[in-house]
Amino acid sequence: MTRYLLVFLGSFLCACASENKNTKEFVYAEPSEMAVLMQQMFAKMQETKENVMHQKDIGPFPDYIKNIHSATLTNATFKSSDFRKLSDTYVQYMVKTYTGEKSQRKENFNTAVNSCVQCHEIFCRGPIPKIKKLWIN
Questions:
Q1: CA-to-CA distance for 125 and 137, rounded, in angstroms?
Q2: Is the pLDDT of residue 37 over 80?
Q3: Burial 6-35 (b: 16+ CB within 10 A, else e)
Q4: Residue 101 and residue 96: Cα distance in Å, rounded?
Q5: Using CA atoms, how far apart are residues 135 and 92, in angstroms rounded to an integer?
Q6: pLDDT of residue 7
Q7: Which residue among 1, 47, 96, 116 sits deepest, i.e. has the most Cβ atoms within 10 Å of its Cβ?
Q8: Rounded Cα distance, 65 and 34, in Å
């Protein structure tokens, strides 16, 4: 019995010590221009949300937002008429948020956020829960 136990333990230790030759190395792709731009826009929108909620100055309109029309997408087929329409709405209401009446900032901002959600419902659903957190109640 002891002999079997020693053989079992020896086999077990050898198996644990052997190198796993099937390990796969993960290769991470560089994010697309659009992915980087959307991360930048999200960060700016978080800041804008806080300032709108606390009726603080939101500063000038960040012109880089207009790059949404020219940034390279991860999947080129996403650039459809739906994408163009929703991105136009987003830019339009972000401009209104920054340059329009202060009394309309919340509504304009929420309309911009809604256009993001609508676009992501069509093209890339993953970030929707994160985007919805931008809404101002």
A1: 22
A2: yes
A3: eeeeeeeeeeeeeeeeeeeeeeeeeeeebb
A4: 8
A5: 17
A6: 55
A7: 116
A8: 11
pTM of the entire structure?
0.78
pLDDT digits (tens, 9 = 90+) for 52-98: 999 999 999 999 999 999 999 988 888 889 999 999 999 999 999 99
What residue spans define the domains of the chain?
33-132
Q: What tokens appear for 87 in the block?
A: 């991105």
What is the distance between the alpha carbons of residues 110 and 132, in angstroms, rounded to a whole number? 10
Find out whether 45 and 62 touch, Cβ atoms under 8 Å: no
d(CA 41, CA 50): 14
Distance CA 137, CA 135 (A): 6
Q: What is the pLDDT of residue 79?
A: 84
Backbone CA torsion sign across 53, 59, 64, 69: positive
Alpha-carbon distance of 60 to 28, in angstroms, equals: 35
Mean pLDDT over residues 105-127, rounded? 97
